[in-house]
């Protein structure tokens, strides 16, 4: 059984250069490429005369300068973050100092800190104490005369993740929840597979078909991709079940069976992706584990 996904890895851009994406939407790509961020973090400027900045990106003087240059003197009224991973949120404070704009986001004060010993990204990639100036919840609206954004709470990759639907434009700013260049990392304890699958299903009932993600190029026919990603996650869980059925009794032993050609730099992320699937299978009553799942703790079919 195979289920190959087709990814869109071509992307026309230049670091620091504003690129029109749609009327009233400009993208600036931060120069922070990595195996988890692809070419870098996408920052979007929304509006014609007064602007919102969506995902200000990492703390980087050159990227801050590029954002301000792309604004062309137009006032930035809102700084909006999809989630508090540092490649999206760390640039917010410096941009706030420059513009006086408040920072909007879900906030993380309700989530207990989790140290880098149990998370592959670690505290260096997650701002555990991020507190927005304006808290945004599911269904809340951020609006100016020229645009209106509806917040969609989409936990899974991160517990505080928000997507934003642009009213009347068939567009969702999808952050790291749905991207074209790769599937989203769901890594416990920051990520939860049950939440992620539910959040994908939440997007399927919406009409928007164009997604502007936090990394990589724009995604057309987005609902087709969402369905494919849901199918892919079900297929991965079947792989995990099959591996356990044939004697692979730990997450550590399952990883090379599912990811035989994985880049060693991504092996930790792969292990936690498997853990996320195992946790979901335990919640569904299909797998058992004596205690919380970990790399070497024995697993068995329920």
CATH class of the largest domain: Alpha Beta
Tell me the radius of gyration: 19 Å
- Which parts are unreliable, with pLDDT below 50 for 5 consecutive residues or more? none
Helicity level, as a percent range?
25-40%
Can you describe what's shown?
This protein has 2 domains: 19-221, 4-Layer Sandwich (Metallo-beta-lactamase, Chain A), CATH 3.60.15.10; 230-301, Winged helix-like DNA-binding domain superfamily/Winged helix DNA-binding domain (Arc Repressor Mutant, subunit A). Helix 4 (193-204) runs antiparallel to helix 5 (222-245) and helix 6 (251-258) packs across helix 7. The relative contact order is 0.12. The mean pLDDT is 92. The chain is elongated, with a radius of gyration of 19 Å. It starts with 18 loop residues before the first strand and ends with a strand. The longest helix is centred in the C-terminal third of the chain and has 24 residues, at 222-245. It is built from 7 helices and 14 strands. A hairpin with an 8-residue loop joins strand 9 (148-153) and strand 10. The chain is an alpha/beta fold and 302 residues long. The protein has a 7-stranded mixed beta sheet, covered by helices on one side.
Quick structural gist:
This protein is of the alpha/beta class. It has 2 domains: 19-221, 4-Layer Sandwich (Metallo-beta-lactamase, Chain A), CATH 3.60.15; 230-301, Arc Repressor Mutant, subunit A.
